[in-house]
Amino acid sequence: xxxSNKTPTINDVARLSGVSKKTVSRVINRSALLSEDTRTKVxxxxxxxxxxxxxxxxxxxxxxNFLLGLLHDNPNAQTVLNFQEGVLDAIRETEFALVxxxxxxxxxxxxxxxxxxxxxxxxxxxxILPPISENDALAQLCLEMGCGYVRMGSAMLDDEDHxxxxxxxxMVSQAVDxxxxxxxxxxxxxxxxxxxxxxxxxREGFMAAMQAHGLAVLPEWRVQxxxxxxxxxxxxxxxxxxxxxxxxxxxxNDEMAAGAFHAARLSDLKVPDDLSxxxxxxxxxxxxxxxxxxxxxxxxxxxxxxxxLKLIAPDDPAAQAFRFPAKLVKRLSVAPPRx
Amino acid sequence: xxxSNKTPTINDVARLSGVSKKTVSRVINRSALLSEDTRTKVxxxxxxxxxxxxxxxxxxxxxxNFLLGLLHDNPNAQTVLNFQEGVLDAIRETEFALVxxxxxxxxxxxxxxxxxxxxxxxxxxxxILPPISENDALAQLCLEMGCGYVRMGSAMLDDEDHxxxxxxxxMVSQAVDxxxxxxxxxxxxxxxxxxxxxxxxxREGFMAAMQAHGLAVLPEWRVQxxxxxxxxxxxxxxxxxxxxxxxxxxxxNDEMAAGAFHAARLSDLKVPDDLSxxxxxxxxxxxxxxxxxxxxxxxxxxxxxxxxLKLIAPDDPAAQAFRFPAKLVKRLSVAPPRx
DNA sequence: CTGAAAGCGCTTACAG
DNA sequence: CTGAAAGCGCTTACAG
Lengths: 339, 339
Description:
The structure is a homodimer of 339-residue chains.
Chain A: H1 10-17, H2 21-28, H3 36-49, H4 55-62, E1 67-72, H5 77-91, E2 97-102, H6 110-121, E3 125-128, H7 136-144, E4 148-153, E5 163-166, H8 168-181, E6 187-191, H9 197-212, E7 222-224, H10 229-240, E8 248-251, H11 254-266, E9 276-281, H12 284-288, E10 294-297, H13 300-312, E11 323-324, E12 327-329
Parallel strand pairs in A: 1-2, 1-3, 3-4, 4-5, 5-11, 6-7, 6-8, 8-9, 9-10
Antiparallel strand pairs in A: 10-12
Helix pairs in contact in A: 1-2, 1-3, 5-13, 6-7, 8-9, 10-11
Chain A binds a DNA duplex (16 and 16 nucleotides) through residues 9-11, 19-23, 25-26, 28-29, 33-35, 38, 53-63.
């Protein structure tokens, strides 16, 4: 009998079921080489004892643990949490767990810090969120350290096994199409910050769409922001002071778009009657400001799930996906321009 | 020489420094019983080799691992992330890592699921966020399983070693005081949902403050919401239809307060001229809607840090704290009532 | 289909 | 202040 005051081990299970611990191990690991009888018998004892394999011991023997890491420096809390939910969807009912690690993109020791983290925790693999996911040196580091990784990005930054990507460029095109269909011709862009791939993709998508429609983008209709609320407000303020004022603004994320709403209000312009605004992300703020914002939503949770599956179950059909369609969420911040 | 293609182990360090592995272990664990010479010598070899102790092996031998768990079902993404940052502040430079585990409060198998999670991961301890932190059965479960825990709450739900608490009741009083000082007499309450301790505390604080000021709270000035945006909108709509319309609203969280902003707009009432609104949480939305919202902010990150320290370094002075002052953040959603 | 032996990389008494 | 032996709870070749 196992000592009743301790959690049972593989030895207890082996003794009680009258087999070797190796056989118990085979049951745990679902080995094919096992008679149905033995399996049933051992499983009964496992259930009776409430036995749970010790993951530390398994990790030691297997030379890898069951931890997935989430590396992020994402400013959008909801995106991070949605991604986490997706990862959890993938690892639920498995022995994997999710370890989170915020990183500071601006720290000069960032790469060393992450190296130490990976060495120390010996993760099974890491999931990397944008914008830090755009750092190729980081991906290289994972490779060197033998740590699996999957990046989330707004373009195909890596090969299919290592990325879950949205189609930002195409989606921004659709947003522009939507504005043009309603009659807008003077459409301004609030860009994201230098060095963000997503900012680049969204700008490219915007410019390409405008060109496809034969529409000019005056230099004064392009202002750069930082992806933060205040920068969107400042950028929109400048746009609204332009000699030839745009009738619509595409902001490269929702936070900046929300800032643009404020700027419009301060300039006594009504959204959408005097100014149409489209954002990007479909974060909670988009639905909760007034008027509710038309924006581009992307399936963050599904991307998190697929990213995790690429690491822990690469043969799962859901792990094959690497392109994830975003979609335009139409709300009330867009209307035809004033006649 | 260690095989250069493998990560070095304690044996490599022992061999190269000419001591036993036990001595290396003493260096790793900062044992006091060590000559300065030996320590220096071993540390040099460790640095030279880039040796990092294998946490799985340590975990197995020590019978506990170095993982902190974060259990939450918090609807406010920013709060969860801020708390995570605080925990990370505490475990930075340690060998601990943070494992996250969202839970579904409404699942009938929740407690069993968590039990399995704790059994499986054998966490060093868990941090529990509200509202699930208010579940005493969960705390009891941790106790039974020998898993350390610290709850975050809006009241002293547990003893000092097991909680980091805000002072919601007192803070709501201050919010009410602020409104009364400006001349408001007819102040309405949008309550949080039944069964949330925070909702209870905030309501109690509200009622006590009103009573202290000798102000009546008409039944029609109290409406319950769900902590979600839409419920705040619906609740405020009802409040604004009251025969005797309130001049100010205290909403038990920012999301519902934001909903109240919308309701006011739909009723053609200007905030703050026609209606003052105060929220609770100081979440990003509070600063990003128009007008910027006066609200109650609490030091979530500091609470996360203290909670983690209670688990991993109970003797640290910062681990002693259990009460965390919130503060009123004055912005532009409050003004004196119309004459 | 099943088992005895050795090993994963560390720590814990126990000596000295 | 330091070390040899045994053990933490698993798995991996290797036999049979």
